[in-house]
Amino acid sequence: MFSSLSGWVLSIAGVISLSVIVELILPEGQLNKYIRGIFSFIIMLVIIAPLPSLVGKNFSFSDISLNEHYELQEDYIYQMNVYKTEALQNDLQRQIKEHGYENVTVSVSSENYSTSFNIKAIYVELSNLVITSEAEHTNILDIEKEILKIILAHAKVDEAEVHFER
Amino acid sequence: MKKFFFLICAISIVILSSLLINESLISSSASVCYADSAQESVEDQIEDSVDDQLGDLDLGELEDILNNSQNANDLFGGKSFLEKLASIINGDFADDSTSIWEAILNLIFDNLLSFLPIIATVIAVAILGGMIQNLKPNLNGKSIGSVIHFVTYGVVVILIFTIILKMITITTSTIGSIKAQMDAVFPILLTMLTAVGGTVSVSVYQPAMALLASVIINVFTIFLMPLFLISTVLSLVSNLSNNVKLDKFIGFLNSLFKWVIGLIFTVFIGFASIQGITAGSIDGLSIKTAKFAIKSYIPIVGSYISDGLYIVLASSSLIKNAVGACGLLLLAGTILAPILQLIIFMLALKLMAGIIEPLGDGKIASFVNTLAKNMTMLISMIVAVSFMYVILTGLVMCSANIL
């Protein structure tokens, strides 16, 4: 594209320079104005010469697009998902502790390799459970129910994906 | 008209970048002035989280670009990209605005001095030509007059074109380095946007960024740049003699340039901002409500800000905005010198035309004046590319903000 363009421009410039030089060299006379007319005609022809080839030519978008695609930094997103998982685990454990159930271990399993942060499942271990005086329930089933409620209020996860281990 | 367009662009770049910089400042200071009691600990936690995340981010490409550019290095105050990022997040931003003005003033005077010999030579040649024209013997005058004009014109053209070629190289290399910066900054911004949870925004900005960095830059270099060259060459030949005039054709090329650049600009900015703002609000909603891991948050400020997850997200969004701000600073460092150079050269050409016109040849004056008009093409090319870059970065900075 560029080479044909520069050829076009050079030919315009060349013809004009030629006409100017000829005009300089030619002596005054009758013939002068005819030569001038011929040269203006040639200049016009040179200018419009590439236009017919433009008609009917298909310009495709792919000629100018490089199909560039920006890759995300996967390592960083993975690391962020790990941070988020850890933070969520700590949040949940803190929330449960504030309700009076100590030594509950919550582990969140999430899809760390995907770009969006999705929780797959949450495992709650109750084997070391210590029930303090602030606790509402003492029955293990009621405790599970309350912990489930806390988790569901805090994290977006299906009820079926919360597993308890006693 | 084009000058007006350029002026508006330049002013809005300055205003927009200062606004964005302010916003990132505000959001960074807003994050630390929430609850009174928990303030210290939250601040510390966010700082820790930011440090952790900055350690994981790969900024190698940007550091390379920064190291290779002297002006950008000056603007960054000798800091590395990571250090500047950290200082922006901490809120100490405008530490040395006087040094920026000093750098601009130095650039202006340096350029003025470097153009002075050429200006003087061109004016001297034109005056000499005019004097010889007046002193020539009257017999057979027309032809000799034309030859004198031809020679004077040739010398002026050679002198001015040495600088114009330099300006063309500067413009192409500036656009090239803007593209290199886009290639370095955009992946990081997209990564940060993903980390914050702006999945819809990412799906909008990813193609928009690719479009800007490949297609639009390509159109600029393979279509608009040749247009400038053609128009310059034609303005050269059109002033060779009185008989062949190509002014209208040059006018056509100029308005073609203006319309193409305006169309690209408007369509791109329009689509990017409308889609981006919509996607950003969708993301904002989904982050705030159910879609993102947190189902419901307790609307007590102190409580939810102290949530560990929110601290991770808030630090990510701080880093995202700081990366955007640093990218804009890098851009400013890259385009400041070329744009000043081009503007000063354009003004010098105008001055030359003004001085030559009463003394010497009218045709040389009109040639120099046309060149001065054409220089605005180069300026508007750089300005348009950087403006689109600024807008896109600004949109990313504004979308999917947590706080």
Topology:
The complex is a heterodimer of chains A (166) and B (403).
Chain A lengths: L1 H24 L5 H18 L2 H4 L19 H25 L2 E2 L2 E6 L8 E7 L4 E2 L8 H15 L7 E4 L1
Parallel strand pairs in A: 3-5
Antiparallel strand pairs in A: 1-4, 2-3
Chain B lengths: L1 H29 L8 H18 L3 H9 L1 H6 L5 H10 L6 H39 L5 H56 L2 H40 L8 H42 L12 H5 L2 H52 L2 H37 L5
> How many domain regions of chain B?
1
The largest sheet of chain A is: 3 strands, mixed
Q: What's the level 1 CATH class of the largest domain in chain A?
A: Alpha Beta
Helix content of chain B: over 70%
Helix share of residues of chain A? 40-55%
Written as H for each helix and E for each strand, in order along the chain, the element string of chain B is HHHHHHHHHHHH
The CA-CA distance between the termini of chain B, in Å, is: 42 Å
Task: Give a brief outline of the structure.
The complex is a heterodimer of chains A (166) and B (403). Chain A has 166 residues and is of the alpha+beta class. Chain A is 52% helix and 13% strand.
What does this structure look like?
The complex is a heterodimer of chains A (166) and B (403). Chain A has 166 residues and is an alpha+beta fold. Chain A has five helices and five strands, in the order ααααββββαβ. In chain A, the strands form two sheets. Chain A has a three-stranded mixed sheet with strand order 2-3-5. In chain A, strands 1-4 form a two-stranded antiparallel sheet. The two termini of chain A are 74 Å apart. The model of chain A has no long low-confidence stretch (mean pLDDT 80). With 403 residues, chain B is an all-alpha fold. Chain B is built from twelve helices and no strands. In chain B, helix 5 (81-90) packs across helix 11. The longest helix of chain B has 56 residues, at 141-196. The two termini of chain B are 42 Å apart. The chains are: A alpha+beta (166), B mainly alpha (403). Chains A and B meet through helix 1, helix 2, helix 4 and helix 5 of A and helix 2, helix 7, helix 8 and helix 11 of B.
